Amino acid sequence: MAQAEKSQTAWTQLLCSALATILDCWDSDGAQQELDEVSLLTAITVFIFSTSPEVTTIECLQKRCIEKFNFALESKDPVVQLKCYQLLFSIFQCPNRAVSHPYIHSLASLIVSKLQETEKTKPETVAELQVVQEGIKVVAALIALAKEEHRKCLHHAIWCTDCKKLCW
């Protein structure tokens, strides 16, 4: 039994190291980025769904992963934004709340505010329109995932122009 526990611990440490390496590949200024943002976001998402929560809920790693999605949501590239929304749609629906809720709490209000920006700046290209449509799909999923008693608050927050924090 002790050998199995040692193996499990070593395996978890290896996976944590691999995730940290992926995160290290991402240089925020883009100057030395080895892989494109979409590939890195996809790799992070694969880790989230393929490894145990012991790996992906380690606070320092989880915070860095969320930060990468935050950067992608703020990207000027509609392809990056679109893929980010698609991946977050999956993460938000993860049945393990320890995995999904930190992403929801950290990114939902940004997603709503990005959608509210479209009231001022209408999409000018098909790609920009697809981003808005995907954002709406994510928000609809968030409303469906919210507890019944929070849906009214969430609905109000989405339609309120000065929304700062959502009810979860």
What this model shows, in words?
This protein is mostly helical and about 170 residues long. It has one domain: Serine Threonine Protein Phosphatase 5, Tetratricopeptide repeat (Alpha Horseshoe), CATH 1.25.40. The protein contains 8 helices and no strands. Helix 1 packs parallel to helix 4, helix 2 runs parallel beside helix 5 and helix 6 packs across helix 7. It is globular, with a radius of gyration of 17 Å.
Sequence-ordered SSE layout with sheet pairings:
Elements lengths: L1 H23 L12 H14 L2 H4 L2 H15 L4 H15 L4 H21 L8 H20 L2 H12 L9
Helix pairs in contact: 1-4, 2-5, 4-6, 5-7, 6-7
Give a quick rundown of the structure.
This protein has 168 residues and is mainly alpha-helical. It has helices at 2-24, 37-50, 53-56, 59-73, 78-92, 97-117, 126-145, 148-159.
- Report the order of strands and helices: HHHHHHHH
Low-confidence stretches: 161-168
Number of DSSP strands?
A: 0
Query: Counting H and I runs of at least 4 residues, what is the number of helices?
Result: 8
Distance between the termini: 41 Å
Provide the residue-averaged pLDDT: 86
User: Portion of residues in helices?
Assistant: over 70%
| CATH top level class name | Mainly Alpha
Characterize the biggest β-sheet: none
Structural class: mainly alpha
Strand content: under 5%
CATH architecture identity: Alpha Horseshoe
Counting structural domains, the number is 1
- Spatial extent as radius of gyration: 17 Å
Shape: globular
InterPro entries: ARM-type_fold, Laa1/Sip1/HEATR5
